[in-house]
Amino acid sequence: xxQGDDGALQKAVALVLQNREDFVAILFYASWCPFSKIFxxxxxxxxxxxxxxxxxxxxxxxxxxxxxxxxxxxxxPTIFLLNSTVRVRYHGSRAMNSLAVxxxxxxxLNPVSLDATSLERxxxxxxxIDHDKKTEKEDSLLSWARSPDRLLHQDxxxxxxxxxxxxxxxxxxxxxxxxxxxxxxxxxxxxxxRLFPSLS
Length: 200
Hints:
Elements: E1 2-4, H1 6-17, E2 24-29, H2 34-49, E3 54-59, H3 65-70, E4 78-82, E5 87-89, H4 96-107, H5 116-125, H6 131-134, E6 136-138, H7 148-154, H8 156-195
Parallel strand pairs: 1-3, 2-3
Antiparallel strand pairs: 2-4, 4-5, 5-6
């Protein structure tokens, strides 16, 4: 398992893009968060259960806020499984068996220290009501390749900045449009008064 900063995150993404790794697991955590401390130890266990998956963990203070925003990290801990075509975020419980089932569902790999019988029992104990709602799949790892709807939904700062720019544009253009409308109305009234002088 690797820990690091923005450079290590770029290394993880490079592994995925170069297809050196089928899947990469990324954990964003905060040292001040008690749930993150528990989740971080479970993440270490997952790296031993799934040794073929490269595991990277990033502490919140070592990552720039814009990077966290790009990945849609709004709370800690947040875990992703990535490959060259998909990024899947985990939204289930923090139980180890639920995490192992999530890994198996996304990657198709079984944990090395569990046999098939115990894995089936583990799947029976974890009730996943709607798998599509709990995992958020993206079409591409690259932010510029995502659809605008998904980009605005996931990047709150971008959505707020875009709405601010549109409101400023409206604030700038509305008085000019109003002045043009008044001028057009005055011109029409002048022409009507000239054609029908008895109306005035």
